[in-house]
Amino acid sequence: MKQVFNFRTIGISADNAVNLLSIQQPNYIKIDVDGIEHLILSGANHVLSKVDGVLVEVNDDFLEHAVQCNKILSQAGLVLKEKRHSEMFNCSNSFGGGKVWNQIWIRN
Fold first, then answer.
1. Contact 79, 89 (CB under 8 A)
2. Where are the alpha helices (DSSP H) in the chain?
């Protein structure tokens, strides 16, 4: 792949973003990062304990990642309300659409 440009950036957990940067606690979170959802969620334990809901796309082909996502969200007091496929993908396509789910987690 030909490199056209590059730039430096930093990464910060959601918990640190709220605590250190004084970013307002979110009510809802959407995560679609293709394979590192469990890592994003693991840095958001405090934030997740206060949100009303989370929409996260999880690929069940990555079983360990999917299990970790479920565990982190459940431990934050959230409940899986809905799990369905994106309407833009045919479940039989080459992108693995049959195993990719949009999950909606809510606080009861």
1. no
2. 14-20, 37-42, 45-48, 63-75
pTM, to two decimals: 0.82
Would you give the end-to-end CA distance of the chain in angstroms?
47
Q: What are the E-state strand segments in the chain?
A: 28-31, 53-59, 78-84, 100-107
Cα separation, 29 vs 48, whole angstroms: 9
The answer to whether 57 and 82 have CB atoms below 8 angstroms apart is: no
Buried b (16+ CB within 10 A) or exposed e, 46-76: ebbeebebbebbbbeebeebbebbbebbeeb
Q: Which tokens in the block code for residue 54?
A: 């989370």
Integer Cα distance of 4 and 97 in angstroms:
30
User: Over the stretch 17-59, which tens digit does the pLDDT of each residue have?
Assistant: 999 998 999 999 999 998 899 999 999 999 999 999 999 999 9
Summarize pLDDT for 49-92 with one digit per residue, the tens.
999 999 999 998 899 999 999 999 999 999 999 999 866 655 55
